[in-house]
Amino acid sequence: MIWQTSTFIMASSVKFTYLLLLVCSLGKNHMMSGGCLGKCCGGGRDMSCTSTDWRMDRVYGTCYCDQGCTATQDCCFDYFTLCPAQACLVSAWSFWSGCAETCRPSLRLRIRQVEERPSNNGESCPSLQERAGCMDYRDHQGQPCGLSSGPAFITSMEFGKGRPKQDRNGSPLDPGFCVEFSLESRSPHCTVENRPHTHWMRYFTEGFTVCVVCRPPAMSNSSGGCQGDGQDVDSEALLRWQAVGNPRCGGTWRKIQRRQQCDCPPQHSFIFI
């Protein structure tokens, strides 16, 4: 009797274990076949990127795991959990390059690299290249350019922050001075540029007072001034200026006064380049 009871218990245990394994196997197969597990598809609409499970609209049947399903609202219920959006990742900006040309207004360049492409409707990649105006006052042999008179070449005060404060021997450079001008005219091309380092050109408005800093290397050792600063002319003289980085952005102004330091708002403060 005891032997029969033990046999019955062992048989029941084997059946229970078999049923448990069967249920686990079915559940595993459902997990592998249903939803978006292992089925996230890149790109736009992909009609082959399907599964069978509950959809976002609470309908059971064919559902999708491609990036286009968010627009058609037929994603599988777990799409946003298993296929999260990944924004484009980019590296830090490189250092600015040198000026493309010497002894004349030119452009410098910096770049960054894509480290991870966007996926699942993630934010697209931003611009990978930026250009900004610059000017090199020494030629390829390292000799001073010896620039002649001409328009005042100017740029944003932000450019001045990157200029060295000491010479090659470690001695402090001349702190320079500030010149105030009354803006008389500007070309319409100053407002049409939309690159990051040309936005400062939009703040030129006729009738406003602008401040322009003159300091090395734009400051000439011989004259003690900057090209086009108006130090040798009277206040009635109409002087020309040109924005570096956009040769079509230029105009005229009249010198008001020379000061030791500038006192204009940031958007109306510039630097000779």
Compose a concise summary of this entry:
This protein is α+β, with helices and mostly antiparallel strands. The protein has helices at 2-33, 69-72, 79-82, 157-160, and strands at residues 50-54, 60-64, 89-90, 106-111, 114-116, 129-134, 152-156, 177-186, 209-214, 239-243, 250-259, 269-272. 16% of the residues lie in helices and 25% in strands.
Could you describe the 3D structure shown?
The protein has helices at residues 2-33, 69-72, 79-82, 157-160, and strands at 50-54, 60-64, 89-90, 106-111, 114-116, 129-134, 152-156, 177-186, 209-214, 239-243, 250-259, 269-272. With 273 residues, the chain is α+β, with helices and mostly antiparallel strands. Strands 7-10-11-8-9-12 form a six-stranded mixed barrel. A hairpin with a 5-residue loop joins strand 1 and strand 2 (60-64).
Number of helices: 4
Q: How far apart are the termini?
A: 107 Å
Query: Helicity, in percent?
Result: 10-25%
What profile does the largest beta sheet have? Answer: 6 strands, mixed, barrel
Element-by-element helix/strand order: HEEHHEEEEEHEEEEE
Judged by helices, strands and strand pairing, the structural class is alpha+beta
Question: What average pLDDT do the residues reach?
Answer: 79
Radius of gyration: 34 Å
